[in-house]
Specification:
The protein is 50% helix and 3% strand. By secondary structure, the chain is mainly α. A hairpin with a 5-residue loop joins strand 1 and strand 2.
């Protein structure tokens, strides 16, 4: 049995996901919140447009499965490197390994901008006046493609 990052165990044979206490995962714990999915979907349609319940649920399931798919690959990478925490580079490498290389450059850019923003906030909150150097993490990404 392999440990996932969020404390959920997954059976390598594709078995049922269980919480550490042995309780099966509830459906609402397996999927992203439907309200969040609906909010994002509504941004792509006219203001008076409607989204059918089955369409929202279908997208909810697909997006949740996609995130699980990518996270599982990233978790495998961490496990091989004997690390317990998935980071941004792990997600990018997982996406590359799974054939989503077209997303790597924009996501790398976003990750670097996010990290710069966090560093700037930290600097302001610490009221430090020393300049922070940025090595732009993520630019030296070393990923391998799955050969399946």
């Amino acid at each position: 049995m392999q440990d996932d990052i969020d404390g959920i165990h997954s059976d390598d044979s594709g078995g049922e996901h269980l919480l550490k206490q042995g309780e099966p995962l509830r459906e609402q714990d397996r999927f992203l919140p439907i309200a969040n999915i609906t909010k994002i979907m509504k941004k792509g349609i006219p203001a008076n447009g409607k989204i059918a319940k089955d369409a929202r649920e279908c997208i909810q399931e697909c997006v949740s499965e996609f995130i699980s798919f990518i996270t599982s690959e990233a978790s495998d990478r961490c496990h091989m490197e004997k690390r317990k925490t998935i980071n941004g580079e792990d997600i990018l490498c997982a996406m590359y390994a799974l054939g989503f290389e077209n997303y790597i450059d924009p996501l790398k850019l976003y990750l670097n901008k996010y990290r710069e923003s966090v560093a700037a906030e930290r600097t302001v909150s610490e009221e430090s006046k020393e300049p922070q150097t940025s090595s732009e993490p993520g630019n030296d990404l070393h990923c391998e493609r799955n050969q399946e």
